[in-house]
Amino acid sequence: MAIIEPASYAAGHWVGPGGDARLVHGPVDGAAIARTGGAPLDFGAMIEFAVTRGGPALRAMTFHERAKMLKALAAYIAERKETLYALNPLTGATRKDGAVDIEGGIITMSVIASKGRREMPDGNVYVDGALEQISRKGSFLAQHIAVPLRGVAVHINAFNFPVWGMLEKLAPTLLAGMPAIVKPATQTCYLTEACFRLIVESGLVPEGAVQLVIGGTGDLLDRLAAQDVVSFTGSAETALHLRGKPNLLRHSVRFMAEQDSLNASVLGPDVTPDSPEFDLFVKQAATEITVKAGQKCTAIRRIIVPQALLDPVAQALSARLRQTTIGDPSGDVRMGCLASEAQRGDVAARVAQLRQEARVVLDETGFEMPNGPGFFAPTLLACDDPDAGQAVHSVEAFGPVSTLMPYRDLPHAAALANRGGGSLVTSLVTQDPQVARAMVLESAAWHGRLYIIDRDSMAEATGHGAPLPHLVHGGPGRAGGGEELGGVRGVLHYMQRTAVQGGPDVLTAVTGQWVPGARQIEGPAHPFQRTYHELQIGETITTDSRIVTLADIEHFARFTGDTFYAHMDEEAARANPFFPGRVAHGYLLLSFAAGLFVQPDPGPVLANTGLNALSFQKPVSPGDSLHVRLTVKRKTGRTETYGEVAWNATLFNQDAEQVAEYELLTMVAYDRA
Ligand code: NDP
After folding, report:
1. What are the residue boundaries of the Aldehyde dehydrogenase domain, all occurrences included (predicted)?
2. Which of 27, 312, 568, 665 could make an SS bond with 92 (beta carbons 3.0 to 4.6 A apart)?
3. Mind listing the pLDDT tens digit for each residue in 68-98?
4. Does an H or E element contain 155, and which?
């Protein structure tokens, strides 16, 4: 096979390997597979290109436009994924391992795009949380917002997930509206480059939004400033070196790290060897040891079991692992190899460290081991005194290696899991929700994710080792202290959260959402006869009023079956501190409100899809009158033909006192039928 020459993509130009290029050797047979880096890159020009071209182009798009771009990009890569699978075995990964990397990356990008469409506005300002009422009369308010940072995000990625590692960071960054410079790990950079090439060739991403560095980062980090971000995945040592760079500290550059993690899996004290949970636990441990040959940041490094089950688990897990077929990852084998000869040397050295504290349960003896510089057998160790152990809780052998350890009781199990010093994930297999609760209370503070399964949830469970775009990926302490993904929270890492204080009109203008107290607009027709595009933020109708009678309340009670005493029994209602006597049902008020504001003719309003944040502020008694103020609060495009209009509905009594408020959601057509 011809040697691959992956190129950097700097300031709109591809830059191939230079005179000082490094040869990358494959882990399967040791042959040279790529020439990488070695060409001088002008990092100043790259930053400038990102900040002056990529940033403004991305910021000119709304969140929804960027989300659509990411959706299209994920589809574009998915259609061409076989070009990536063709390179995947060179990294030592089987096709199944490759799916975690390639499909996993595509799905992550797609899910982040969907979340952008659903949970972010079709605008340029993200509204973070509720309006803060900081004045008595409501003439001065505050709202947290988030806007894209004005610099560049530098992504430094690990060798083990060349595709997922890039896409899981790019998706939230681009959705936020920030350009990125991606630096993949050299050992597997040719696969990252192949995927990056697809991104550029798609023409979907504005110029300057993405750039690629193959090889060293030179003075890139020394040139970053206040609006930039570094997002790193790799070893704790490199993270420490990079995050301590004076330039990054001087400018308070955000530095997110996802690094070594001594993840654990705990077998609940309720589990017996003949229960489905026992098999589930063993199967999960075997999977996590062998997938990607254990080179997963989330892999199980410590297997924590009740003292009495140490031997049964050791036997069952060894038996299962012994069935692992190991070989050329392009063939029909369960496990391929480590990413490089150096990685194998690193894993072997770390196993030697672990063996100071743990005995060998399973090693390469008994396996048919292929020749090749990256092959390493599934290795199971057991540490009989994990309280005394140090290395077993701190040395990460980044390969198919795991250490069994016994616990006395649940607090001890949790304490051992926490000895990892901060981990990405710990799993617990138990059928007892109280065991789960106790473990969560003891261990959540030390983990980014807790994964709890039993026989009932296992069929749909997503996997101990699978970071999901919806959920936090990161962990405290040793795991790096950073967070990635986690839905829209992951997007906010590339944005500035700012509290904006001002009057209602100011906040309406800034957020694009009508705030109570802001100017109201009178439209030329009833709002239910206005299309999505015609409706303006702040457009308001105030309805006629109607009297709520005792007959109405009794009719509603009989009609719906809701004969709660507060509506039907004067004496009992009076005894309730909330009510002056019999009062109208809250749902009756809502129904009357709809009757007051609805315009009944066919028109652009297609459907009522829900209501949010309903609150009742004051009881309504028989004889009170009711009227409604209905205001267009927020508009969000949803499909090619209609969008969602959120209305503020406020109900008042005859004394202009507010009795109820909610946000009504409707789907409204863009055009008249
Ligand atoms: P490194 O920390 O050496 O490398 C990670 C990334 O940082 C790579 O892209 C690397 O580039 C880059 N890098 C290294 N030094 C610098 C520098 N001075 N300036 C800028 N970028 C730099 O980790 P490895 O990938 O070599 O893996 C080593 C160990 O890290 C593993 O054995 C494992 O223990 C742990 N690891 C943990 C992961 C996790 O998610 N928990 C993931 C991967 C690794 P280059 O490749 O060009 O050197």
Report:
1. 27-496
2. 27
3. 999 999 999 999 999 999 999 999 999 999 9
4. strand 153-156
Strands laid side by side in the 229-233 sheet: 13-15, 8-10, 210-212, 180-183, 153-156, 229-233, 254-258
264-468 has which fold? Answer: Aldehyde Dehydrogenase; Chain A, domain 2 (3.40.309)
Residue 137 CB: number of other CB atoms within 10 A? 7
In order, the DSSP letters of 420-470 are: TSSEEEEEEE-S-HHHHHHHHHHHGGGEEEEEEE-TTTTTT---TT---TT
Q: How far apart are CA 118 and CA 103, in angstroms?
A: 22
Q: Whose CA is nearest to atom 19 of ligand 1?
A: 217
Q: Is-above-0.90 flag for pTM? A: yes
Second CATH level (architecture) for the domain 520-669: Roll (3.10)
Q: Which of 183, 220, 238 for a ligand 1 pocket mutation test, highest count of atoms within 8 Å of Cβ?
A: 238
Q: Rounded to the nearest 5 degrees, what angle is found at the Cα of 107, between the Cα atoms of 106 and 112? A: 105
Measured distance CA(216)–CA(234) in Å, rounded: 15
- In whole angstroms, how large is the CA radius of gyration of the chain? 30
Q: Which CATH superfamily groups domain 43-123+147-260?
A: Aldehyde Dehydrogenase; Chain A, domain 1 (3.40.605.10)
Q: According to the model, what pLDDT value does residue 1 have? A: 74
Q: Pull the structure tokens for residue 389.
A: 């152990």
